[in-house]
Automatic annotation (TrEMBL):
Major location (coarse): membrane
Transmembrane segments: 55-76, 88-106, 112-136, 157-176, 188-207, 240-257, 277-294, 306-325, 331-355, 367-388, 400-418
Protein name as annotated: Putative proline/betaine transporter
UniProt-listed PANTHER family: ALPHA-KETOGLUTARATE PERMEASE, PROLINE_BETAINE TRANSPORTER
Domain of life of the native organism: Bacteria
CDD domains hit by this protein: MFS_KgtP
GO MF, any single term: symporter activity
């Protein structure tokens, strides 16, 4: 149902939030389940040998997926600017479903040698293509569908859905760990979450077909030929560089305390795989609940205070937190330290999507968010786990802690000098004012 009159300023576009987020949940479930189950399928695609070496191989393929994200950011970001946010959201979840299915049916090393690893690689490339466009399409859709003064709160649900996707993956892992033997998990049980992901993505494809296009996008009548072009993005190269720089520290910290955390607690701290998974699950659940609170706070005090808090916290807190985690041998100690790290990271995750979307005009917003963000993730987020394992294999694991701190320090400089974006107008035509008569609104509930 749509409204012909502007909605009350207090109303939140829950239908748009759900539609933009539910697919994001499945996308990131599939993306993160690879990392969550890597300890079980690493030996299936590579020769038997050193466990850390096998994890390095699977982490390398994980990183390759990130290097496909700039391609996805460019192609699907352009697609979202030219064909609409709804069309891009539908396409990305289709690609993700195909990639999950490929991993689920991939043959092992014992069956076909390295061909199985090649199938795994192709699937990760498809995932990278999909996620490269999903982030920007979701960020722009949620931001544009929000009422003025509530964009931080609404866009924070992007990381709520991302985290929920990871929680579902971890939850499924915990269930399988308690219902299947370790041998069964290493043999075939690891395929189950990828089958679930493929089916879930197919369901979301149907749901996303019923989304309304955002009002901000449909009202943008100018710049038709410039929509989503690299030439137009280059006119906003200062903002593009800003996205890369402000993402650098946040993405390294995020992947350190999410995808890498379970392996770190298992390989370094010495916790069992099941305890490490449970620590990650509990910490991420509380982290998820913090996102809307922090997003709403940014609508009141601005985006920069939260980003600056994250920058200082990550720069100064990473070394002591990671060092303490390496020596903890209790569930409670690991949980409290992990949660402390994720509270710091919340200053970045809760608002990074809306900040980037607020930097660009409508006709190049999706590409402007997608490509620079994907480049930053390829360089820093996708390589975080690989760099961490490289330091560990070299016998200098603490060097990784300082690496994370250094990345946060670079981003902190950006946070201290960038402009506040909270009151930025998303549309030049209406400056975030009331809808034109007769226009459909995505804010209908």
């Amino acid at each position: 149902m749509t409204d012909s009159a502007p909605p009350s300023p207090a109303r939140t576009p829950w239908r748009a939030v759900f539609g933009g987020s539910i697919g994001n949940l499945v996308e990131w479930y599939d993306w993160f389940v690879y990392a969550s189950f890597a300890t079980y399928f690493a030996g299936a695609f590579f020769p038997k040998g050193n466990d850390t070496a096998q994890l390095l191989n699977t982490a390398g393929i994980f990183a390759v997926g990130f290097f496909m994200r700039p391609v996805g950011g460019w192609l699907l970001g352009r697609f979202a600017d030219r064909r609409g946010r709804k069309a891009a959201l539908t396409l990305t979840v289709t690609l993700m479903s195909a990639s999950a299915l490929l991993i689920a049916i991939a043959p092992t090393y014992d069956q076909v040698g390295y061909f199985g690893a090649a199938v795994l690689l192709v699937a990760r490339l498809l995932q990278g293509l999909s996620v490269g466009g999903e982030y920007a399409a979701s960020a722009t859709y949620l931001t544009e569908a929000s009422r003025p003064g509530g964009r931080g709160f609404v866009s924070s649900f992007q990381y709520v859905s991302m985290t929920m996707g990871q929680l579902i993956g971890l939850g499924l892992q915990i269930v399988l760990q308690h219902t299947m033997s370790d041998d069964a998990l290493h043999s075939y049980g690891w395929r189950i979450p990828f089958i679930v992901g493929a089916v879930g993505a197919a369901v979301v494809f149907w749901l996303r077909r019923n989304l309304l296009e955002t009002e901000v996008y449909t009202e943008e009548d100018a710049h038709q030929d410039e929509r989503g072009t690299i030439a137009e993005l280059l006119r906003h190269r200062k903002e593009a560089v800003l996205v890369i720089a402000l993402t650098m520290g946040g993405t390294v910290a995020y992947y350190t305390y999410t995808t890498y955390l379970t392996k770190y607690l298992s390989n370094t701290a010495g916790l069992s795989k099941s305890d490490a998974s449970l620590v990650s699950f509990c910490a991420l659940f509380l982290f998820m609940l913090l996102q809307p609170l922090a997003g709403s706070l940014s609508d009141r005090i601005g985006r920069r205070p939260l980003l600056i808090t994250f920058g200082f916290g990550s720069m100064l807190g990473t070394v002591p937190i990671m060092t303490a985690l390496s020596h903890t041998d209790t569930f409670t100690g690991a949980l409290l330290l992990s949660l402390a790290a994720l509270v710091i990271v919340t200053g970045y995750t809760s608002i990074n999507a809306v900040v980037k979307a607020e930097l660009f005009p409508t006709h190049v917003r999706a590409l402007g968010v997608a490509l620079p963000y994907a480049l930053a993730n390829a360089m820093f987020g996708g390589t975080a786990e690989y760099v961490a394992l490289w330091f560990k294999k070299g016998g200098a694991e603490s060097g990784y802690y300082w690496y994370v701190s250094a990345c946060a320090a670079v981003s902190l400089i950006v946070y201290l000098t960038m402009r506040e974006t909270r009151d930025a107008a998303l549309s030049r035509d209406r400056a975030d004012g009331p809808a034109a008569p007769g226009k459909q609104r995505t804010t209908a509930v």
